[in-house]
């Protein structure tokens, strides 16, 4: 008889409402019977999969636009997003993965032509204060990192993170001994510093001194070649972006910065050498080189010319060869200044 009275499938709105109820239960009932709690978490896991199916389809049936809109509207209206973020540490890896996919989909869903996730995040920026420190917990680092990158695709969210104290913490997170976590942090760090051009330019200009001091000491001069490799590549991406032209001009007038680049040119890793080359050429190409930079380049002229004469890459690259020829020509024709060369390790 029991099989004759199957429960009616939940509507998309009811799914989200029930998800909300389960999240509240799991977060607020830490001292309940373990069996009961496990049942609720199991139900939560299944419900996340069901919602994911509504949003993505099941491989045979495409997702229904109206159902997706209903899920999205209900999800953000009742602050279910925040509840799910807070509950993630209680879920297993499969449920966390489903949650990440659900959030990624909801972030770009439109309701009446509006991406309502953007307005929600703008009104709940403090959620980033939960997500960013998630890198300190190895169990949830990847999940929070993936969700964080989805959120900072919205410019107002990226600005909040850039202007917060969290940015200083990234330099520590980037040196996590766990390679996978460090790589995830690197992906987020790059997203923050390259996606929203005008916001990044404002941030770098306003925070130039402390940011590049930390960048140089903790990343470019790190003992980890992986950290150095990522750092010099990202530095090149930032400085060569037209929106950061003012920052680039300021950077390439610093002898300390050029000294770091000269040391990295001697790195044993070919990739680091090549990426450093693309930054170093900016110092040489600068038409307003300070006298101390000219003096160092002249003092090390013969060694630099020999280095670049022998510096080659594994594949043919006309632009690389043209840039290298220009650097060689510029260094070869530099005129000494009257200012004595500052103390600098010989190249």
TrEMBL record:
Biological process GO terms, please?
intracellular signal transduction
Cite a single GO MF annotation.
Answer: protein serine/threonine kinase activator activity
SUPFAM superfamilies (alphabetical): ARM repeat
InterPro entries per UniProt? ARM-like, ARM-type_fold, Mo25
Which Pfam family is an annotated match for this chain, by its short name?
Answer: Mo25
Q: Which family does it belong to?
A: Belongs to the Mo25 family.
Write down what this protein is called: Mo25 family protein
What species does this protein belong to? Gossypium barbadense (Sea Island cotton)
């Amino acid at each position: 008889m029991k099989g004759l009275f199957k429960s009616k499938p939940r509507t998309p709105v009811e799914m989200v409402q029930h998800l909300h109820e389960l999240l509240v239960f799991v977060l607020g009932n830490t001292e309940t019977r373990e069996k009961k709690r496990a049942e609720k978490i199991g139900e939560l896991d299944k419900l996340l999969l069901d919602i994911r199916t509504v949003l993505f389809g099941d491989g045979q049936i495409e997702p229904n636009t109206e159902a997706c809109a209903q899920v999205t509207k209900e999800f953000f209206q009742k602050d279910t997003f925040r509840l799910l973020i807070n509950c993630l540490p209680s879920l297993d890896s499969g449920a966390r993965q489903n949650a990440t996919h659900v959030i990624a989909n909801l972030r770009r869903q439109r309701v009446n032509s509006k991406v309502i996730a953007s307005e929600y995040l703008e009104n709940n920026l403090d959620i980033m204060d939960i997500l960013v420190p998630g890198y300190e917990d190895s169990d949830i680092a990847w999940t929070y990192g993936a969700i964080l990158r989805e959120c900072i695709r919205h410019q107002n969210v990226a600005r909040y993170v850039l202007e917060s104290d969290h940015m200083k913490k990234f330099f520590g997170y980037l040196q996590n001994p766990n390679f996978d976590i460090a790589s995830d942090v690197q992906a987020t760090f790059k997203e923050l510093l390259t996606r929203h051009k005008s916001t990044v330019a404002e941030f770098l200009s306003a925070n130039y001194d402390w940011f590049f001091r930390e960048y140089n000491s903790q990343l470019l001069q790190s003992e980890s070649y992986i950290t150095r490799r990522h750092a010099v590549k990202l530095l090149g991406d930032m400085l060569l972006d037209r929106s950061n032209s003012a920052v680039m001009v300021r950077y390439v007038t610093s002898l300390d910065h050029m000294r770091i680049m000269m040391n990295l040119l001697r790195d044993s890793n070919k990739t680091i050498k090549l990426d450093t080359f693309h930054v170093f050429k900016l110092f040489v190409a600068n038409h307003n080189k300070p006298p101390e930079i000219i003096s160092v380049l002249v003092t090390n002229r013969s060694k630099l010319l020999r280095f670049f004469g022998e510096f080659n890459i594994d594949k043919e690259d006309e632009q690389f060869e043209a840039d290298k020829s220009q650097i060689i020509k510029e260094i070869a024709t530099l005129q000494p200044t009257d200012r004595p060369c500052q103390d600098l390790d010989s190249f």
